[in-house]
Amino acid sequence: MTTWLNMTPISTAILMWSEFHHIYLVSPRISATSEDPPCPSAIMKFSLVAALVVVLAIGCESGSLVKRDIPAEIETLTKYFQDAIETVKSHELISQAQGYLEEGKTQITPLTDKIQEHAEKIQEQMKPFVSDIEKQVRPMADNLQAQFMPLVDKMQAQFKPLADDLQAQMEQLFQTVVDQTKALLPPQ
User: By CB atoms within 10 Å of each CB, which of 2, 79, 95, 188 scores lowest?
Assistant: First the structure.
């Protein structure tokens, strides 16, 4: 990690710009309105300040510029400014997209209200048909139940003695097992 003291003014300006770019433009912002993109005027103000710092740094170190790789530093600065411009443009595109979404939402809302009204009307129109079908099916269901109840009662009457006999046999078997188990235990 490079410290601020060991850096040249141009490198310091580049580092300041990259930190600003990362904190305010790349990383998500934490604020009361976190959905809002950073203000383009604030970005432009900071860009101007960063450019001013670079110009001052170049002026202060004009004597030592001969020893440096100027095209590389200029290329780095150009890249950072291009990234900033792209970020500002992307925020403008995001705000335009949000505007289109809001406009679409306002256009769709009346349609959904009309669909809801039609659904309620259809439901009201279906109520008489449903009640009519219920009136026709109810006697058939009652008739079917009346026909099957004697059969169910007859089957229950036939199975009741068998179930009682099975229960008596199981109780007798259980008692036999208990008695034989007691006989196998040593006397106390």
Answer: 188
SS3 label, residue 66: helix
pLDDT, residue 165, reads: 92
Q: Are 57 and 9 in contact (CB under 8 A)?
A: yes
For the chain (length 188 residues), average pLDDT per consecutive 10? 54 63 51 54 70 69 57 80 77 79 88 90 90 90 89 90 92 91 81
b/e map 86-117, b = 16+ CB within 10 Å: ebbeebeeeeeeeeeeeeeeeeeeeeeeeeee
pLDDT score of 101: 87
Q: Is residue 48 within 8 Å of residue 111, measured between CB atoms?
A: no
Is-above-0.85 flag for pTM? no
Q: What angle do CA 94, 22, 97 make, to 5 degrees?
A: 0
With a CB cutoff of 8 Å and minimum separation 6, the contacts of 51 are 81
Q: Are 16 and 52 in contact (CB under 8 A)?
A: no
Smallest CA-to-CA distance from 12 within 65, 66, 64, 50 is with 50
CA dist 120 and 139 (Å) reads: 30
Nearest to 36, CA basis, from 87, 94, 100? 94
